[in-house]
Design brief:
This protein has 298 residues and is an alpha/beta fold. It is built from 10 helices and 11 strands. It has a single domain, classed as Rossmann fold, CATH 3.40.50. The longest helix is centred in the N-terminal third of the chain and has 18 residues. The chain starts with a strand and ends with a strand.
């Protein structure tokens, strides 16, 4: 592909580190207003007002995989979740280890609704201002989680740079992003199984990473990549005309239910087998989202 891209509605440019970015970018003020007033309050694919028992099980089991990859987390450690959303992961880490936890997000709507017990460990507001406060006061963490945030910000490298400043030597940074402009997505478009770049979705998603471009961003910040995993490749359904939920949105709920059933089955069994399965998918560059765990060298 060229270094610029127009999907018929939006313009994108390819950055130095290989990910795609919307141009022009919305202002920081517009993003602040959107996330503080609208994002969690309006149900959508990532966050819902209410979850079924199967969906809550799905969240818990996916978190179980991630917590296993983090390694030893105990009472002596501290964990920062930037863009903690509804707080499910932060609560599970806290319940499992009793460590110090701290969450940041633009809105407290999701955490008050789903995990109000975490409110005392939560800071509402512009995450950059919150991070600057932590940097100025030299408050550092053993583990920092950035889950489904990097695709939303104006300057991904700047955000990673700030996080590195408050990560202890030997600490771990966890970053999860959608796996966009992947081979599968481009093949679906090329073979006309889909008629649009359905993954392009500003103003919420401003940046579009593959596993390779995310790795390049992390390494450009001087961090060392340790592990990479994917999640369930729900876009596989779009290869089959009869299950293609982009061609017909009516098929979306059934694809979601199928994903829950299969992913819950995989993640509820032997955890090492499940982790190896998700690692193998990442190596194959498959999966709807990718999680990369990196460390700050001592």
């Amino acid at each position: 592909m060229e270094d610029s891209y127009f999907d018929g509605e939006f313009n994108l440019i390819k950055t130095e580190n290989g990910y795609w970015q919307i141009t022009p970018l919305p202002s920081e003020e517009d993003l602040d207003a959107h996330y503080s007033l609208n994002y969690y309050q309006n149900p959508h694919g990532t966050y819902q007002s209410n979850y079924s028992n199967e969906e809550l099980t799905h969240i818990r089991l996916k978190n179980r995989i991630l917590i296993d990859l983090l390694g030893d987390v105990n009472k002596s450690h501290s964990v920062l979740d930037v863009g903690c959303g509804e707080g499910f992961l932060l609560k599970q880490i806290y319940d499992n280890s009793g460590c110090k936890v701290y969450g940041l997000d633009y809105s407290d709507y999701g955490i008050i609704k789903h995990n109000p017990g975490l409110k005392e460990f939560f800071k509402k507001g512009n995450i950059y201002e919150s991070l600057d406060f932590l940097i100025e006061n030299q408050i550092c963490f053993d583990f920092i989680i950035l889950k489904n945030v990097l695709e939303h910000v104006r300057d991904p490298e700047n955000l990673i740079s700030k996080l590195k400043k408050i990560l202890v030597s030997g600490g771990k940074l966890v970053v999860t992003v959608p796996n966009d402009f992947s081979w599968l997505q481009l093949n679906l478009k090329m073979t006309r199984r889909v008629d649009k770049d359905y993954w392009i979705a500003p103003p919420e998603h401003l940046n579009y990473f593959t596993i390779d471009s995310l790795t390049k961003v992390i390494e450009s910040m001087g961090l060392v990549c340790q592990d990479t995993i994917s999640d369930f490749p729900i876009e596989w359904f779009n290869v089959n005309t009869h299950s293609n939920y982009i061609q017909s949105s009516k098929r979306g709920p059934e694809a979601h239910k199928s994903r829950l059933l299969l992913e819950n089955h995989i993640n509820s069994g032997d955890i090492k087998l499940a982790v190896n399965f998700w690692k193998a998918l990442a190596q194959l560059r498959m999966g709807r989202a990718v999680t990369l765990i990196s460390s700050k060298m001592v």
